[in-house]
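Handout for the seminar on molecular recognition.
Each group receives one record of this type.
Step one: identify the two inputs.
Step two: read the structure output and locate the region that could contact nicotinamide-adenine-dinucleotide.
Step three: write two sentences on what you found, then compare them with the reference statements printed after the record.
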Amino acid sequence: MKYIVTAEDVHRLAAEGERELMVREHTVITDAALDAASLLGVRIVEGSTFSTAAPEPLAPAARPGARGLPEPVLTGLTRNRTATTHTAPTLTQTAPTRTQSAPAPAPTRIEGLPDYSTLHTKLLIGGEWVDATRGETVPTVDPATNQVIAEVAAAQLEDVDRAVRAARGAFPAWRDLDPDKRARILLRVAEIIEAEQERLARIESHDVGKPIREAALVDLPACWDPWRFFQGLVRAIDGRVLALPKHSFDYVRKEPMGVVGMIIPWNFPLHIACRKGSSALAAGNTVVLKAPELAPLTCLELGRICLEAGMPPGVFNVVPGLGEVAGAALAEHPDVNKIAFTGSTVTGRSVMRAGAGTIKRVSLELGGKSPSIVFADADLNRAVIGSVFGIYLAQGEVCSAGSRVLVERPVYDEFVARFADKARKIRVGMPHRWDTQLGALINERQCERVYEYVEIGKAEGATVVHGGVRPVDPELAAGNFIEPTIFADVTNNMKIAQEEIFGPVVVIIPFEGEEEGVHLANDVRYGLAAGVWTRDTGKAHRVAHALEAGSIWVNHYSAYPSEAPFGGFKESGTGHDLGLESLAEYLETKNVHVNIGLETSDWYAGN
Ligand code: NAD
C-alpha cells in the first residue's frame, strides 16, 4: 500500500504547529506537497530508505554511495525524483493534470527476471505491432545462461522500407506540432520510464547480462533524464537575424531534418535509444530505430512507451533485426535524412560509406581505449575507486571504459596492489541478483574474444595480476563470465593496450612525468574519454587541454549528464549525443533573405 502525502496534508500539519513530516518506505509525496513543505518550513524527515532529501554534497574522497556505487561517478547521472501524473496527453490537450499519482521511488533492492508473457517481440511500424515480412525472427539470449529469452521479429529490407515510409508520413504533422505539445509528450515519456523503472531494469539486466543493481541505479536514471532535458529545449529552438544593410531582412532558421535512422549497440540499449531519440524528436524529426539484435527488448518497450505517452503513430518506429540486413537497409535508404549510429568503429565505417550514396548526415559514436591517468600526487584511494569503476561497470562493455590505466612510476606498485585488492572483492554473479556487481558478457563469441585477449596479453609478456579465468561458482558455468582481469607490466605498444577488448580487462601502464603521461594517453587511434587524477589544479587543466578525447573527467570517471555533449575525437567518431550540441545535429540550417526595400536592382538594365 502506498501512502500519498498531498499539499493539503502539509497545510494541515503546519496549521497544527508541526515542523517535521516523517516519510516511510511507501510514502509518496506529490510535487505540490513538496512545494507546500518548502513554503511553510516543514522539514521532510526520512523514516526509512526512501529519500526525499537533496543529494548529499560531494565528499572530498570517493566513498561507497548509499547503494554501493561510488558517489562521484553517479554525480550528474541521477536527478531527484519528480511527482507528476502519467495520463497520456492527446495532441489537443495542453495542460496535463498535476500530481494525481507519483512515480515509484528509486528501487532499493530489486531482483528476479521479467515476466516473459508481457515482453514485446514484434516490429513497431506506424503504431502497429507487426511480424517481419516473411515471419523472420532472431532469438535474444540470456547471457548468464545462454538460454533463449524470446524470438524477436527480424526486420527485412521491406520492413525497414515500411518503417521509413511510416516515419516520412508522420513527419509533417510532428514537425508542425505546437512545440509546447511536443514537449509535453516527451516529458510524458520520461515520466512513464521513471514509473516503470523496476520492470525496465529487470528486462535490461536479463537481456544484456548486466547486474540489475546497475540497470536500476545507473542505466534507468540515464534513460529518463535525456527526455526531461530535451523536452525543456523544444521551446528554446530558435534562429537569428543577421546585421545586414537596412533593406535586407535576413534570418537563420533551424528546421528538423526529416526521418532519422538510428542504429545502436547492445551494451546500453535503452539509454542510447533514449539519449538519441529524445534529442531527434525534440528537434521535430521522426525516427526509425534499428534495435540491436543481441538485446532488443527494452527498445521495443520504449516504442510502446512513446505510443502510451501520446506520440502519434509513425513518429517513433522500432525495427529490431540483423545489422547486415536491417541496419544496412536503413543506412542505405534514400528517404532517410540522417543516420545516428553508435557501435564499433568497423561498422561505423561501413555506415558512413552507405550514407554517402544519398549524402546523409551521419553521426558516429564509436569505440574507445580510454586512459585513466593517475599522477603521483593524486589521492590514491579516489583514483583506485574511480579507475576500478571506470573499467568494471557493465562488465567493461562500455565504449568509454577506462581500459588503459596510466600510473606515474613512484606510485605504480602501490596503485596496482590497491587496485587488485579492490577488484578481487567484486562479486561476479547472476545478473538478476541485487548483490551481483559483475554480470555476464553479451554472448559466447564476445566471451571467447575476451579470453583470446587474455592469452594475447600473456604472450606479449604482460603479467596477469588477477582474473583472466572463469569464476569457480558452478551456478555460472553455462554463462559468459570472466573474473575481473588486471594486466600489469604493460607497455603502450602491446595489442592489449591498443585494441578495444570490450570486457572486464584493464591494462596498467607506468609513466614518468606529465609529458610522457599525455603522450601515452594520446598514443592510440581512439579518442573518446579520459580520466585525470591529481591534486594539482593547474596540471589537471593542462592535461585536460592536451588530451585528444571528447570527454575528460578530472578526479572521477564515467559521468554522462544530459547537459554534457558526449562524442569522440579521432576514430572514436564524429558528432555528439546529449547536450545542446546533439540537438543542433538534428537540425538543418536555413537562411532566408528578404528584400524589404522598395527597389529591385536590374542587373540587365540597358540591354
Ligand atoms: P556493432 O558495430 O557490431 O553493432 C552496432 C549496431 O550496428 C547494431 O545494431 C548492429 O546490428 C548494427 N550493424 C552491424 N552491421 C551493420 C551494417 N553493416 N550496417 C548497419 N548496421 C550494422 O557494435 P556492437 O558490438 O553492438 O557494440 C559494441 C561497440 O559499440 C563497441 O565498439 C563500443 O565501443 C561501441 N559503443 C560506442 C558508444 C559510444 O557512444 N561511442 C557507446 C556504446 C558502444
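Reference statements: The chain has 19 helices and 26 strands. The chain has a mean pLDDT of 90.
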